[in-house]
Design brief:
single chain; alpha+beta; Nucleotidyltransferase, domain 5; 4 domains; elongated; nucleic acid binding; Transposase; RNaseH-like_sf; ISNCY_transpos; Integrase_cat-core
Amino acid sequence: MTRAEWKKVLVVEKILDGHMTNAEGAAALGLGVRQVIRLKKKYVEEGGAQALAHGNRGRKPKHAIPEEVKDHVVELYTTTYHGSNNCHFAELLEEHESIKLSTPSVRRILLSKGIKQAKPRRRKKAHQPRQRKPQAGMLWQIDATPYAWLEDRAPSFTLHAAIDDATGTVVGAVFRPTECREGYSLVMMQGIPEYGVPLGLYSDKHTIFRSPHETLSLEQELAGETKPLSDFGKAMAELHIEHIKALSPQAKGRIERLWGTFQDRLVIELRLLGVKTIEEANEALPKLLEKHNRKFAVQPKQAESAYMEPDPSVKLEHVFTARKYRKLGHGNTLSYNGKVYTFAKPCKFRFDARATVEVRETLTGEVLVWHHGQAIALKETEKPVRDPATPTKKAEPAPPRKPAANHPWRLAWSPKQLQRNTNFAPGQVT
């Protein structure tokens, strides 16, 4: 019996012994007089103190989870869903096993078998978090993280992703072997056609995003020089996206917390799908992102979107490229990465001899010349090959020539010497 039930027993016994009135007992228990009278009657008719105990004590509730279900849940966790947190495990049970349990119920079942949550709950931070942007598309945060996404089924590789700051929507993601410009470019090429061009992009200070020589001296600033941009930075400038570089990981906490969620959930989802390679992981990623966004994305404070409509004439595959400058040689040829290229078709532009042109290489390996906002296709041509059997002759030096006696080099400056060397008459010298 509980302490409150024992208190009722003592009060009822004092009333029956004549030491308290019904009104005094009701005041002591905080009940009405009629309720005290019913307790007295129950005590007398049903045999003492045990009659005042709760009637359901010792009985199993009708809505209690059967032991068979509990054992099945524990077995599923230890064999198939191990490593998942309680909330994710409850979702997976409903999705894959048609077992609908609340997160607290799952937690109690696992704790009763001595199974604790794989990762501790994230505690609330003492500092005030930065407020979300009010409109979708005002700011994207982009980053990459290496992790054993396929556990021991494949080597570790890197996930590149971008998240909208206002809604928490993951706008694009891709797996790559390492952190690279191609991975970030693919993320942007996924998100822009789907959502639009964001106003700003928040990243770290990796050299993919900035040039290592972007710090200008005072003399360079006074001379009007601008900061050099990386290939990715040039793409952002071409799309008119403000590129902001964070000074610390905490500054872009939205995407840093996303990595914790993905490392907790994505690993389990990829395991359940039987993914074993990075190619299979990229194929499964779009559906997993849709599932993630349905659960975690929120509504922005303002319904109006800040996304800019992408220009239909701009091809993103021509924007997110590697960029170099080359000089045109004879026959409009240029050298790039050890290969010689020329125009694939007659070009409508006229280039001067030895003109400097911008060469862009797309993510698919296509090489083109970018001129006045237009892409000029190139084709690879063969280098001139010399016949090794024909020896190259070096130019022989010219034979020495002895100037004549009357050569100007032999003429002296004095009139007497000039007359003697040229046998001119004195009157002939002018």
